[in-house]
């Protein structure tokens, strides 16, 4: 490009003038924060919205308060696998348009769509250019109120379940299995993923029956980020009135009956040289006063794989790096995790090791939690963990999609959204004694253990595992 052409281009697009067609920022007042507005439709559907000044995109999030824990997984009217298949068939053929039409329309709208199912809720999300949000509401509403579930798409979903059973990351299996060990015999101990031998039993009737019981206004919430509330209600009201009102009070919520236990699953993992060993203990749920200290413990333990490029924010100073990965050559990967539900939750450590080091891995996990129960963490460790937790939370909330998901999940759990500043304050208030109290409470209950892979050796009897845990907790 010649000098004259460069000057002409610079003059035609000066940096101090808004690009033609771009929205005019409304500005953010001093110390002001985006507010959430809330309305309820006549059918009981709660709708929230939050504007993002200057945003060119809008995110729609819809949550249904049901999941695998709500499935009846035995008997002639079993709905085993319904939640899994609803995820796989989201944004597919509806009574008004085909799957191909929906995919093409989302591409034309500059949008994307996803569905995530958990044990206690199913989350649908559409992200789209603001100028096309009305058509995005059409697609979301059709997916929620009028899915068709043609047999050819169910057959494809069965193939996907088979594929996931082979290709999913190993911790998917170990953490699902430890949850089933922890809550065996209760709804939270249900199969989360549809078993391979049950995929043929999932039919369109299965899905429609499950939906008719749980997809109603009072059991659902819709959150919109990036659009004014009046516009949101104008678009939502005619599209979601088709949801029946229902009666949320009559819906039986899953009960939490923690038992603890040991489950072993022989299956070929993607890396057959290693076994997944996952051990967890019961902690509180979303409403527990131990929730924030539990998250601090997870961050303090941290973890990762035996190979890491390092760098800021990689957690190289967390305990599972400094005390496990750096010292035990047999540990391929180790990571702390949480699995939190409405009224209960698990905090555990998931590790990969060779088949003949299973006992070593179990001892390592128990010793890590026992150390937290006996010795206060240093101020340096505690502050590092709290700062990292706040940093991760705030960085996630820079995403419009995360704001939307966070809002709708918090409304489903608390009926409101806690502000990031309030959450940061709760994290700052955590003390070393709080962490010790949580760890002691965990070790006072029986452990839950899952072992997944082929050829695992030296797996202790569950009674010996319980005894060893008690001994370590008492020393």
Task: Please supply descriptive tags for the structure shown above.
475 residues; six-stranded mixed sheet
Question: If you had to describe this structure to a student in words, what would you say it looks like?
Answer:
Strand 10 and strand 11 (345-353) form a beta hairpin. The strands form two sheets. A six-stranded mixed beta sheet has the order 1-2-6-3-5-4, with helices on both faces. Strands 7-12-8-11-10-9 form a six-stranded mixed beta sheet, with helices on both faces. It is of the alpha+beta class. The model has no long low-confidence stretch (mean pLDDT 91). Helices cover 41% and strands 16% of the residues. Helix 9 (291-301) packs across helix 12 (379-396) and helix 12 runs antiparallel to helix 14. The protein is built from 16 helices and twelve strands. The radius of gyration is 25 Å and the shape is globular. The termini are far apart. It has helices at residues 3-12, 82-88, 99-109, 133-145, 151-167, 170-182, 204-214, 229-240, 291-301, 319-325, 358-374, 379-396, 400-414, 420-428, 432-443, 462-474; strands spanning 37-40, 46-50, 57-64, 112-117, 122-129, 220-225, 261-266, 275-283, 303-305, 333-340, 345-353, 448-453.
